[in-house]
Design brief:
218 residues, alpha+beta, 434 Repressor (Amino-terminal Domain), Umud Fragment, subunit A, 2 domains, 28% strand
Length: 218
């Protein structure tokens, strides 16, 4: 087993920092997950891969977004094969669905995207390929998002509110972990923000993160 390669896929320092910042311990997290503390320790040291189900529960425990946990756990991207071009970045996987209510929900297990979709994405993704990029599919048979039913969008998870998200269609991470698709009208550094929901309703919200949609492919 090439342990060094696994170690590079998870940001152990970030997870331990999140626990310390919230006055929580690895044992408390393990109890929340219903697992042995040694298993979580192996996960954070890169000796055991985090599952999508664990990422969802860890996000809830830390009060952060699922995509942020996925980003730091290395779930969204997979290592390239030796024949891949270095400029392509990590493989992009379909990692979430967006329902009629505009809420983003992580899939139990990321899935490969059809090559036809990937072929249409590179130019729009551009400079964001030095970061993990996530794909999410819209599933909306009715409501305002139905015009994009079955479309796939791409975004790069962020630890904060990206300046480029203001005024753009974005994945907005609310305090508490919920993520929604909305246009970010304005945002302050302290998290107070105004978002425009798909139905056109304007709401005041407290955001933890916001990342602009890089491209939406019908």
């Amino acid at each position: 087993m090439r342990m060094g390669k696994l170690m590079a896929e998870i940001d152990s320092e970030w997870f331990h920092g999140q626990l310390e910042g919230r006055g929580q311990s690895l044992r408390a997290l393990a109890r929340h997950l219903g697992k042995d503390a040694s298993a979580i320790s192996r996960t954070f040291s890169g000796k055991r891969r985090m599952t999508m189900e664990e990422a969802v529960e860890i996000a809830a425990f830390l009060g952060t977004s699922v995509t942020e946990v996925m980003h730091h756990a290395g779930i969204a991207g997979r290592a390239r094969t030796p024949g891949d071009s270095e400029s392509l970045g990590p493989e992009i996987l379909l990692s979430a669905m967006i329902g009629e209510d505009g809420e983003l929900r992580a899939l139990p297990e990321p899935q490969p995207l059809p090559q036809a979709i990937l072929d249409r994405a590179p130019l729009a993704i551009g400079a964001s390929r030095h970061r993990a990029v996530i794909a999410a599919q819209l599933r909306a048979s009715s409501g305002p998002l139905s015009i994009w039913d079955d479309a796939v969008l791409f975004f790069a998870p962020s630890d904060g509110i990206e300046p480029s998200a203001i005024g753009a269609l974005s994945i907005c991470g609310l305090r508490g972990g919920k993520q929604i698709l909305a246009r970010l009208d304005r945002a302050r550094k302290t998290g107070e923000a105004r978002v425009v929901l798909p139905a056109g309703k304007i709401e005041e919200a407290m955001l933890a993160t916001a990342a602009p949609v890089l491209v939406l492919i019908p």
